[in-house]
Amino acid sequence: MAKINLLPWREELRKQKKQEFLNALALGVLVAIMVLAVIHGYFESLKSHQESRNKLLESEISLLDKKIADIKDIEEKKSKLLAKIDLLQKLQESRPEIVHLFDDIPKVTPDGVFLTKFTQTAADLAFEGKSQSNARVSAMMRNIEASQWMNTPTLTIIKIPDKDSQDQLSDFALRAKQGKKPPENPNGDKNAPTAKKRGQR
């Protein structure tokens, strides 16, 4: 019986299987690399798209911030303009009152009272001066109360001089309010309702 040597055939088969395994492994690695490359490209595309959207949003936000700043600037200018208009209207309205006020100050100042200083802050009036007696200051306060253009007199300071002082005039300071006094009720009661005409129900 003839003998057949199978070793070369087995060795060849082993080499073939090894080569097939290496080829399959290389193919698997190549496929994995391709898959990873596709995934990486996909995520890079998403990243690039998101970055472009972020830049667009930043640009829109910058434009909105600029518009908001412009609106605030316009509102500020509007407020200043309205304040100036309001001030001009108040000055226009108070011009007759100021004329009447300065015309009335000498009238409410009795003899024996000498004003040394007068200041006005809005509707607040401040008088400073010297008086021959406390009664003169009281008379001035009554005159202010009776005035149509001043009201609410309040004495803040009165300083009586020493007997040994050469200046025997008292220093005083009082405050009042500027404003036209509302007309009183004919019956003399400001709070009383107006009397109905006879025969009127």
TrEMBL record:
Q: Name a biological process GO annotation.
A: type IV pilus-dependent motility
Q: Which residues form a coiled coil?
A: 64-91
The portions of this protein that span the membrane are 21-43
Region described as Disordered: spans on this chain: 168-201
One matching Pfam family is PilN
Q: Record keywords: Thylakoid included?
A: no
Which UniProt keywords are given for this protein, alphabetically ordered?
Coiled coil, Membrane, Transmembrane, Transmembrane helix
Q: Cite the InterPro entries for this sequence.
A: Extracell_DNA_Util/SecSys_Comp (IPR052534), PilN (IPR007813)
PANTHER family assigned? DNA UTILIZATION PROTEIN HOFN, TYPE IV PILUS INNER MEMBRANE COMPONENT PILN
| Name recorded for this polypeptide | Pilus assembly protein PilN
